[in-house]
Amino acid sequence: MQAPTRIPGSLVGFALILLIGAQQGCGPQAEDHAEGEGEMAEGQMEAEHAEGEGEGEVHWGYEGETGPDGWGGLDPSFAVCDTGLEQSPIDLAGAISADADDGGLDIQWQATEWEVVDNGHTIQINVAEGSSVVLEGRQFSLVQFHFHLPSEHTVDGAASPMEVHFVHAAEEGDLAVIGVFMEAGDEDPAIQGLWEAIPGPEEAPAAVGALDPGALLPEGRGYFRYQGSLTTPPCSEVVSWVVMTESISVSQAQVDAFAALYPMNARPVQPLNEREIRLH
User: Fold this and answer.
1) Does the residue 2 lie in any domain?
2) 198-217 burial string, b = 16+ CB within 10 Å, else e?
3) CB environment 142-177: b (16+ within 10 A), e (fewer)
4) Residue at 4 is within a domain
5) What's the DSSP call for residue 155?
6) Which domain holds residue 86?
7) Would you give the end-to-end CA distance of the chain in angstroms?
8) DSSP notation for 85-150
9) How far is it, in rounded angstroms, from Cα 89 to Cα 253?
10) Contact status, residue 261 vs residue 234, Cβ threshold 8 Å
């Protein structure tokens, strides 16, 4: 696996802002709770994109002319969606065993207050400060997590009913995202609590009491590791991806409840090109 590409700070800041609420598009804006990383990225974004103030949002979606096949042409800042060589998601096939001394993954999440937002493209949970991961020796702070139906990543061509993405930001601005597959089976109490807190169309984001995001992790800690991108515009290639090999269980009713809001919000798999997938 190649080392993460060094990205100019202004581009990294832009990627972070758009990912924290990146899936906003046509929907309401979500509040950024990662104050340190968010303020840094916001300043970088303002400096780079001041000329675009007042021009409005670029509307994108998952079907038709504004769907994934057309993202790269919707706005110049989305061009890498078409031209990038390290795009996500991918099919997780052909993984090689990872080196034992690469630093690994240390998940340091804790119970914290959450805010549930329907941002127009997914259900997003904004997380208060305090949780982080250390990936290959670097620390990333948990900012938010959100859901896709069906799963964006596949394994040997097979998709899962859903996938949750836990988005973390480093001080430098680049991202680490942990993906967890969600299979239909037993009901998940944590998911049920989140679904019940989803605000209605005219309602403000719903605050949720202290909950442990670790409740949404599988028991096993095996994972795939590769270098990739945001799976939504602008598709910036600033993401260190971790996808857990084991899944969590949710009920079919819970899958159906999400599908009633978002019947399909997954980008198709992208070419692997020259990247390696490591299996830990």
Assistant:
1) no
2) beeeeeebbebeebebeebb
3) bbbbbbbbbbbbbbeeebbbbbbbbbbbbebbbbbb
4) no
5) B
6) 9-279
7) 13
8) SS-S--B--S-EEPPTTS--EEEE---EEEEEEE-SSSEEEEE-TT-EEEETTEEEEEEEEEEESS
9) 26
10) no
CA distances, 245 to each of 44, 194, 249 (Å): 35, 24, 13
Question: 171 is written with which tokens?
Answer: 């001080």
C-alpha distances in Å from residue 94, one per residue of 27, 74, 116, 226, 247: 38, 33, 36, 12, 19
Which residues are CB-contacts of 55 (< 8 A; sequence separation ≥ 6)? Answer: none
Q: What CATH number corresponds to the domain at position 27?
A: 3.10.200.10
pLDDT tens, 93-124?
999 998 777 779 999 999 988 999 999 999 99
Who's near 19: CB < 8 A, 6+ residues apart?
167, 175, 230, 232
For residue 144, which of 204, 216, 199, 78 has the smallest C-alpha distance? Answer: 216
For 159-208, what is each residue's pLDDT tens digit?
Answer: 999 999 999 999 998 999 999 999 999 999 999 999 999 998 888 898 88
| Domain annotation covers residue 182 | yes
Judge whether 137 lies within some domain: yes
As for how many domains the chain has, the answer is 1
